[in-house]
Design brief:
alpha/beta; 230 residues; 8-stranded mixed β-sheet; homodimer; 18% strand
Amino acid sequence: MSGRLILTLSILGGTGKEGPGLAYRWAQAGYHVVIGSRTPEKAERVAAELNERLERELVVGMGNVEAAEACDIAVLTVPYNAHRDTLEGLKDQLQGKVLVDVTVPLVPPEVSVLKVPPSGSAAQEAQEILGEGVDVVAAFQNVSHVHLLEDHPVPCDVLVCGDHEGAREQVLELVRAARLVGWDAGPLANAIVVEGLTPVLIGINKRHGMKEAGIRITGHPPVEATGPDA
Amino acid sequence: MSGRLILTLSILGGTGKEGPGLAYRWAQAGYHVVIGSRTPEKAERVAAELNERLERELVVGMGNVEAAEACDIAVLTVPYNAHRDTLEGLKDQLQGKVLVDVTVPLVPPEVSVLKVPPSGSAAQEAQEILGEGVDVVAAFQNVSHVHLLEDHPVPCDVLVCGDHEGAREQVLELVRAARLVGWDAGPLANAIVVEGLTPVLIGINKRHGMKEAGIRITGHPPVEATGPDA
């Protein structure tokens, strides 16, 4: 972690659905936010769209390698079929950092049934690829991107898994900064549950005629979201 | 399924924590309820305690084999270390029936970390042991027994997994009868998520200073619980 006052968050593969939503909320919270993409022009275009929505020049776009290099904390939002290749290409740049893995091991077209990867979960796979020099934390897999780009409170909590408590705490801070409610869900071995909730929620949408099913933890007192709309 | 008007539900290994709570709610809903145990006297004692609480003679106790024989739908609430032996001993009695597996593959003392069994989940293990003649449905793993024996609305939804839609629907009916909110969570392959939520919730209790963490599905319209207290 750098000694700079304002942390830089790079959202790698950030031009998809989830990346811009997280970028929007973190930029509003005052972080330096970088959108990374294999195609730098695409990242720049998405950053420009976000800045228009934010009405300020808060987000920049660049290639994934430069984005991984530039950040204090990296956030990975790629489809599962690009997960391994992306991480192998960014291994050097990510050493010593926290990587927040948002990836869900969905294998289309059957996206409402859990497919367990050989390592147990995408996040455990990421940890294996990156080695012990990177603190992988699984989070944000269950939140619909539709909510993130709106300004209303999001009706879905965030479960945070990782093997290092300090890294989990940093990510719980990012959850609050995104005006979401987060919960410490323990070690990375539990990521299979958190990732697996996404196909379960997709199936519930389909079978119960809903659109944006999410989860809440009950049994409180809850950890309240911070920020103007919480 | 029998042609009888009132179904008999047998709760196998029903003298523990979860069994009496489910029995209490289903007896109130008008089902014939049997508590099964390896030790028939223990089952009779638990049934007597429930009848006292219910202020009517609604629940009977018997040995697991007789209970499995007598029922239309069986519900299994044993600790994971008794799961395989119990099922192997009841395989014949359960053929042609629905088995609701409430088992969570917890391996004490580390009960806040998911341990994935070789088959993926306890429920998939049950399906392998019992064969295709039994419809195994995973449900009720996340609900604290403390709530079930009280009469207030339970702040935890029930995710229902199984490979046969008709069996899932029958169990969703049992969820409503217990005055809980249920969701169709798809095939048995998703049971790993539902079972795995229990160690995640146990860990959240510990790390967030809570006692009875549960989950709710958001994104509604919800399936409302039925019954006087819902």
